[in-house]
Description:
Strand 12 and strand 13 form a beta hairpin. Strands 5-4-1-8-9-10-11-12-13-14 form a 10-stranded mixed beta sheet, with helices on both faces. A 4-stranded mixed beta sheet has the order 3-2-6-7. The chain has one domain: UDP-N-acetylmuramoyl-L-alanine:D-glutamate ligase (3-Layer(aba) Sandwich), CATH 3.40.1190. The chain contains 10 helices and 14 strands. The two termini are 37 Å apart.
Amino acid sequence: MIYTLTLNPALDIVLETYLIKKKEINTTALKSISIGGKGFNTSRALNCLGLDNIALCFYGGTFKGYAEKIIKEEKLKFKIINIVNETRINLKIIETKNNKVVEFNERGPSIRKKEISLLINFIEKIQEEVYFFIVSGSLPKNISETIYRKIILILKKKNIKVLLDSSGLPLYHGICARPYFLKINLKELLEINEIKNSKNFEKTVFEIIANYHKSGINTVMITDGAKKAYYYNGYDFLIAEPPVVNHLYVTGSGDTINAALVYSFINNFNAEKTFRFSMACGISNLYSSIPGKINLMNVREVEKKIQIKKWHI
């Protein structure tokens, strides 16, 4: 079994219009409604890859029943920790004239101490065989920035491997717990290490990655949107050059990569195959308006176009 964790889920609504006009009524077409948040996006991708998983999350408020209905229709397994306050709603509007997406994301609800205790208690009492636990995403209000560190340490005591993907202080504290996988984007890496671009930029990036590995993190993958990605597992420093893909739906690509990393580990892929497959899954996510809903035929086609080279530090 694999678990994903979403502490700040959302009801994601995607609308499409020709052009957003100020001071006028904008007519839109509904493209999709789905449950968002990094963990849910990853669970969706895991389903597409045929891996049994459970999406663990906080959820509450007016649309909780509707959210459960959507999740069941998608055939996602889930465990909801009930909260009193309203789960957020995210609105994405596609402008077809300008070929861009305008996003409006709520910050998220305030979580009560009792609700946090229920989550921790559930994690501590997990008894079934769990291969991986994917900890990712932003935090709602009133949760300590050390929560991911606490969760990772609990899971490590249970010999459960953890993949971490977050940002800011929750990422920093999570890294201190030494998860098995660390997958973040380049902006986050630079922020928590307080470094900037330089002539020896790639060398600096790989030195940081190598230090993470030495500290106890088994595998590190750094992405940078449509640009280069970096990978290190203690043996090979790899750089990937992704192909150019002109699609709008960027939400969920990193989450899909998380699913692919776990899939690759379970299937004993070597470093290059893991890196190529994970990148291909992330890129394939761009073809879908529902984050994590990937097509394996697209993945196979994209894999052929990804260039990977070894880098010697």
